[in-house]
Amino acid sequence: MRLYILIFLTLTHLLSFGQIKPNIKTDFNTIFICVDSITYKSLFQNKFLKDTLLFCKESHQETNNNSYTGKYFIGESSTIEFFQPKKSDKFGDNFGDWGIEFKTRKIGILDDIIGKSKLLKYPIDTSTTTFLDSLTIIPWYKTLSFKNSKNELSILEYQNEYLKYLGFTGEQIDKSMTYKEYNSILSNGKKYPRQFSMVTYIKLYADKKLIDDLQKFGTINNCKRTKNKIANSETTIEFVEVQKLPKFQIKEITISLLTEQNNRILKISDNLYIKIKGKQAKLIFKDN
Question: With contact defined as beta carbons under 8 Å apart, do 241 and 206 qualify?
Fold first, then answer.
């Protein structure tokens, strides 16, 4: 009898996630990739890419658990980050390392997702990243992740102290915010100055372990799952199954553009081309 009651309570708890938490929304936030040094150095050299297509920035960041310099393609609603290899054993410093990040829309949502992950017995990592400003430690974001030595799938949630540090009001912090709304507040409503809207599609190689992680990641993200894809309403991740992962696993990243563009192909390096057609641009990697 006790066994039946325990099973009933577990099923009720599981169903409650589907019934009262179906509106948990996360947005695609970032994909980061460690590319070869030649590609990294060539990223900002094309005038059309820099002045029209993408807002480009290189910056250095120090946190409680890492120190890194990267180049960023910053869009209206998402970001692509590039790093170059370093002599280090740390994740992110080696050629081919990559990570995909989604972001919650409101503080507190990540705790719900962590609770769901624990109930489903998914093996997740959690951490809080901080940074130092004028001798004050600022909690930056909290993270849930599936990770191994070469890749990471994560969901982050900016912390209350960080949003206040950026100038967000209490009323703004309490509201649900999409990535676009977040950026609009930061820019005081100014129009985004380039064409890059958001990341809409990623294609990558995956072995059975990574496929399992992707499918679990899709479940806790309320993504639609098919045989070789996970997708929310805006971004699709497609995987090509392989027995052994190649050193460089990302095949393609597609971004949407704000207005129609003339068809053209930009060569960044021998390993990266950008193919522009209408209102989309494809970053095509040739390392495989």
Answer: yes
